[in-house]
Amino acid sequence: MRIVVTGTEGQVVRSLVERAARHGDIEIIALGRPDLDLAVPSTVANAIAEAKPDIVVSAAAYTAVDQAEDEPELAHAINALGAGAVARAAADLGVPVIHLSTDYVFAGDGEVPYTETDALGPQGVYGRTKLEGEAAVIAANPRHIILRTAWVYSPFGKNFVKTMLRLAETRDQVSVVSDQWGNPTSAIDIADAIIETARRIDVEPSFTGYGIYHLAGTGNINWSGFARAIFASSRNNGGPFAEVADIASADYPTKAKRPFNSRLSTDKFFKVFGWRAPDWQVSTEATVSRLLAEAKGRDAS
To answer: What range(s) does the RmlD-like substrate binding domain occupy (predicted)?
Structure first.
C-alpha cells in the first residue's frame, strides 16, 4: 500500500515514516515544499498524482495558533484552500483521503469530552480555518476520514513534552496552566491509527465508514498535571525534573484564546475501527524515556 502524506517535517509525518517501516507492505511518500505547497494550491494536484497513491493523508497544516491571529489569510490558504486541494486531488485519482483536524473547532467550554456531533464554535483563526478545511475536504472527496486530535507530542519537532524537559534543565520550578483540560496524544499513536485506518479501507472496497472521528490519547488531564507526569517519568529515568506551580490561564495570556476543555471522546473511532490509543500516561512514559535515551546517546558520541 502506497500512502502519500503532505508535509515532510511534522510530528505525524515523521511518526508515520517510522511506524510504516515496521510493515513490509506499506510505503510512505512524504511531499513538501516546493513540490507541494499548500499555500499555492496549484502545486498540489500534480505532486500527488505523480506519487501514485493508494491513499492520501492530509497532515500538513498551519499550526502556529497565536501567529495565525496576525496571518489569517495565510492560515486560510493552507488550512482551508490547501486542505481542499489535497482532498480534490485524491478524489480525481479515485482514492480516499485521511485529513487531520483539531479540537480547536469547538468552543472549548463544558466539562465533558466532545463527541463528533457536538456543536462547533472555533474561538480563533486557527480553529476557524481548520473547520473551513474540514468543510472543504468533505465537499471535495466523499471518501474522506477526518481525524480530530489534540495536545500532540512525540520524539520529533517542537512540542510540550520536549519543552518541559528543556526547561527542567535550567529551572527548579515551572509554572503551567491548570484550568485547561485535554487528551495528551502521541503522534506515534496517531500514526498507528492512520495505518490501521488505511488498511481497513484498503481491504474493504465497500467500506462505508467515511466521516468525522475523534482520535486522541485515552484519558485526560490538565496541562499542569501533564507536566508533572513528564517530570516524574524523567526523574524515574535519570533525567531532568522540576516542581510545577499551577497557574490560571488569565496569568498566562496568549494572543489566541485556548480552549478550557479539549477533551475528545474517541468512542466512535473505537466502535468503527476497533482501535483505541493507549492511556496517555503510557505513551508519555514511552516518549520521555526515548528522548532521554537519545540524549544520552548523543552525549556519549
So the answer is: 1-291
Judge contact between 165 and 174, C-beta under 8 A: no
Segment-wise mean pLDDT, segments of 10 residues, the chain, 301 residues? 96 96 92 95 95 97 96 97 98 98 96 96 97 98 98 96 97 97 98 96 93 98 98 96 97 93 98 96 98 84 62
| Angle, helix 83-92 to helix 125-140, in steps of 10 degrees | 10
- The set of residues, in sequence order, having a beta carbon less than 8 Å from that of 299 and lying 6+ positions away, is none
Angle at 131 between CA 137 and CA 223, to 5 degrees: 125
What pLDDT, on the 0 to 100 scale, is given for residue 44?
96
Residue 24 pLDDT = 85
Residue found under cell 472549548: 108
The answer to whether the beta carbons of residues 59 and 12 sit under 8 Å apart is: yes
User: Known catalytic residue: 126?
Assistant: yes
SS3 (DSSP) at 232: helix
Q: What is the CATH number of the domain that holds 29?
A: 3.40.50.720
Count of the separate structural domains present in the chain: 1
Q: pLDDT at position 137, please?
A: 98
285 is a domain residue: no
Nearest 5°: phi and psi at 218? -80, 130
Asked if residue 300 belongs to a domain, the reply is no
Question: What is this structure's pTM?
Answer: 0.96
Dist CA 64 CA 183 (whole Å): 19
- For 74, the domain range is 2-158+184-218+263-278
* Sequence-ordered list of residues with C-beta below 8 angstroms from that of 158, at least 6 positions apart, any chain: none
